[in-house]
Write a structure and sequence with these properties.
Number of domains: 5
Low-confidence stretches: 1-11, 210-223, 694-707
Number of strands: 17
Oligomer: single chain
Structural class: alpha+beta
Distance between the termini: 67 Å
Strand content: 5-15%
Largest sheet: 5 strands, antiparallel
């Protein structure tokens, strides 16, 4: 048996490598028009891709099929479809849009038709004019993406799309021949860089009525809060790792156990669901907030993500006193009697809130009022075993005449000793759910413990209610901001005590103290990808997420959150005492005028600078005219070589060969690539021995000028 040499074995290409080389070779030898068309189709696909998440299901496959069809025609050299075929496809797309959106106007219908029109226009790419239409449709489609989202990821995606469109635009204006994609890409990057200073000035100083993200809205927000709560509703959010808001403290950072962000307060119970209180007493007899501030205030700044709810989950307790109330530009805020901050409209955009909280404050009436009876009401014939257990607790020694504080402690002690389990998967509860949880299964999440606690306290004739919101933050900050995620959604309780008002109680802390003391919420088991990441490096996923979220936070704070307040602060730093909109507009106009004058001065100074090829054409024409060859500026080098042979004969053969070399280098595949200066030196050397005819002095000077 013959064994191949080791060198031959080592040189054997990897499986499939020859196919990759074959593909590269075929792409390298594609005609210029085919290559440019394929590149343009790839850029269009990249530009359209983010919109497919928001468009009808039929639009993506239709656009993809049209782009693939056009790519096939470019590769095979097939004829473009007739105008009737394109018209029929347009009518079909318009009909589908009208059927799905019930209109051809508006954001969704307009963007759908724009995507289809741009895809159809690729089937009419016959001239540069058609390509320019596609380019400008692409730029407009890039702008429409910001109607859905202005996140950092979309910004980076759009940046690549703009660079690709600029590169395709440069290719469309390049002369014949075979300029490389890298050359066109570098030229488009330089062109974009030249416009960067103007863009920065406009971004910083162009007057705006609100933050950059104030007009367009991000995709529908998600939240762990709502106006009602059912057992198991909060537990379903434990797998939602998205960010609810970021918070930055000025000064000391509170302990995890102090970080309660108040959301909806739920006081009405029908046996299954908790909802907001519907008072049965006149307004004069209802319990008021009666906030009593104690200790030192804690200033903080919060960047709240879109939630689509009319509330702000602010830190307990944030008052509405003048100078201390939360501040949000162009929003009306109100503090409800139950301590929840209400907004005048749903939070459908990112908000930055500045506020101060008193962590040791008290609230609620200190003396009994009739309206508190609404907060001991329980549905009839519901959870009878729990109510009976509460009466047994009341009959225990020392609790018969005990106050609200002692009864609350007794309930919490029972939870602590009762072998209850804090879990994400307690299973569904139905019927008398509190009975089932409290006396039988003893498995639950925070809402189970809070609900059972409030029901028992009401059965003991103590006013109590459920409070929902967020509790705790991530263990480590990101760029000075602490992150609160949707999985931090939490439910706790409040009971009323005479002389003190409402007292916060978190029954979850009795069974899972690490949840409240250290902010460690339960998480669902990782999936297949998560397990794979953990098996490679358990900290890698967390590190990557922290880096990405930190970059997102910088983008939000420095770009999306840049508003008129920051613009006026900038003018103050520039020396304006009390800047106004007129000062801002004047500064912008002066800077733009200065830039325009600088550009005009540079153009005046550089007025003699020309394209190297055009200058070489001019200098070559002047030299040949001095030799008696009547060439013109529009003559190509090959034509000039023919005229040299006709006018000067064999003695000028070297000169003609140099012209043919330049022609191949410019328009064809030359065996060698020469710098224009090197070629010009050779050309002048070949022309020097030839007899010259009289020529104007400026022609001699131009011919003698080095390249």
């Amino acid at each position: 048996m013959n064994t191949p040499p080791a060198s031959a074995t080592a040189a054997k290409p990897a499986p499939g490598a020859w196919r990759l080389d074959l593909v590269r070779a075929r792409l390298a030898h594609l005609p210029r028009d085919t290559r440019d068309t394929l590149f343009q189709l790839a850029v269009i696909a990249w530009t359209v891709a983010p919109h497919l998440l928001h468009l009808p299901l039929w639009c993506g496959p239709m656009a993809g099929a049209l782009l693939l069809w056009r790519g096939h025609l470019a590769l095979t050299g097939g004829a473009l479809p007739s105008r009737w075929v394109v018209t029929a496809l347009l009518i079909l797309a318009s009909g589908l849009t009208l059927w799905g959106e019930r209109t051809l106007l508006g954001k969704e219908a307009g963007i759908t038709l724009l995507v289809v029109l741009m895809s159809l226009k690729t089937l009419e790419l016959r001239a540069r004019r058609d390509a320019l239409v596609v380019f400008f449709l692409g730029f407009f489609l890039v702008l429409t993406q910001f109607l859905y989202s202005q996140s950092l990821g979309i910004g980076l995606w759009v940046l690549m799309a703009v660079w690709g469109l600029l590169t395709a635009l440069v290719l469309a204006h390049m002369p014949v021949g075979r300029p490389g994609l890298l050359q066109a890409g570098a030229m488009s990057a330089r062109a974009a860089a030249l416009g960067l200073p103007v863009m920065m000035v406009l971004f910083v100083l162009f007057p705006r009525m609100g933050p950059l993200w104030g007009l367009p809205q991000d995709a529908a927000g998600r939240t762990g809060l709502s106006g009602s709560m059912r057992l198991g509703g909060v537990a379903s959010l434990a797998e939602d790792d998205s960010i609810a808001f970021r918070i930055r403290f000025e000064g000391r950072v509170p302990r995890q156990s102090q970080l309660y962000f108040r959301g909806p307060v739920l006081s009405t119970f029908d046996g299954r669901d908790w909802t907001r209180l519907v008072p049965t007493f006149p307004a004069a007899h209802r319990p008021r907030l009666n906030l009593r501030l104690q200790g030192e205030p804690l200033a903080y700044e919060m960047t709240l993500e879109s939630s689509r709810l009319n509330l702000l989950p602010l830190l307990e307790m944030t008052p509405d006193a003048p100078g201390d109330a939360p501040r949000v530009d162009n929003w009306l805020l109100s503090l409800r009697p139950d301590g929840q901050w209400q907004t005048d409209r749903p939070v459908a955009e990112r908000l930055r809130v500045q506020a101060r909280a008193w962590m040791d404050s008290q609230h609620g009436p200190t003396d009994p009022v009739l309206g508190l009876r609404d907060l001991v009401a329980l549905p009839p014939n519901s959870n009878p075993r729990t109510l009976a257990w509460a009466q047994e607790l009341r009959r225990q020694p020392g609790l018969a005449n005990a106050g609200a504080q002692a009864l609350s402690q007794a309930v919490l002690d029972h939870i602590r000793r009762g072998e209850y389990t804090y879990t994400l998967e307690p299973g569904p509860y139905s019927g008398d759910a509190i009975d089932d949880f409290w006396l039988d299964r003893k498995l639950g999440f925070c809402e189970h413990f809070a609900s059972a606690y409030v029901v028992i306290m009401r059965a003991l004739d103590v006013p109590a209610r459920v409070v929902t919101g967020y509790q705790g933050v991530d263990e480590l900050p990101q760029d000075g901001y602490w992150v609160v995620r949707q999985r931090n959604a939490h439910a706790w309780a409040e009971y009323w005590r005479e002389g003190a008002g409402w007292v916060r109680v978190d029954p979850t802390a009795s069974v899972a103290p690490e949840r409240v003391m250290q902010g460690r919420s339960l998480r669902t088991p990782p999936g297949l990808v998560g397990n794979a990441m953990n098996s490679i490096n358990p900290a890698l996923a967390n590190q990557m997420r922290a880096l990405w979220e930190g970059a997102n936070n910088r983008w939000n704070q420095w770009v999306l959150n840049y508003a008129r307040g920051q613009q006026l602060d900038l003018l103050k730093r520039l020396g304006f005492e009390s800047p106004t909109w007129q000062d801002l507009a004047t500064t912008l106009i002066l800077l733009l005028c200065t830039a325009a004058l600088g550009g005009a001065g540079w153009a005046l100074w550089d007025r003699r600078r020309q394209d190297p090829w055009q200058r070489l054409q001019k200098d070559t024409a002047i030299l040949l005219q001095g030799l008696g060859v009547p060439v013109q500026m529009h003559h190509a080098p090959r034509t000039r070589a023919l005229m040299v042979r006709q006018m000067l004969g064999p003695v000028a053969e070297t000169l003609a060969e140099q012209l043919e070399l330049l022609d191949r280098q410019r328009y064809g595949a030359a065996p060698e690539r020469l710098a224009l200066q090197v070629w010009w030196s050779r050309f002048k050397a070949a022309a020097r021995p030839l007899p010259r005819v009289a020529s104007p002095p400026e022609a001699d000077a131009a011919a003698a000028q080095p390249m």
